[in-house]
Queue: 2 jobs
Job 1
Amino acid sequence: SSYRDDMDSDEASSSQLRKAIEYYERVVERLPAHLDAQLQLADLYRLTGHADKALALMDRLMSAGAAASPV
């Protein structure tokens, strides 16, 4: 495997991750209660170096879960 092949592979993976993020962002926008989509989106944010977005999304999920839980 050459450096160029690795670069092409990284670019393809990065492109696929960006497309996946866009997809899950649309799902979450249309179906805000879709927990699995939100968790997948948070994981994709983490994988792509957007820890701030992942943490913000997880905080919202935790807050929504706490608000929905009976006391």
Note: The mean pLDDT is 86.
Job 2
Amino acid sequence: LTLRATAGGIAVAVPEDWRVEVDNTVSAGEVQVGVTEHDELPDNAPVLRIDATTQGGGIVISTKEEAEVPR
């Protein structure tokens, strides 16, 4: 999954039982990741790979559907 935030925000809700791997590039703003730790998941957990880039925006990747997006 490729995410790009420029002067805005993106919120992504993921299932608690997924392994999430995030590669991020922040030029201004932030990328917040609040997902289940890898060592708490089974070896066969589904994997979601995210390439996140922000330029004056914010991205929140969380297991909570109502995550607050930084502005």
Note: The beta strands are 2-6, 9-13, 19-34, 47-62.
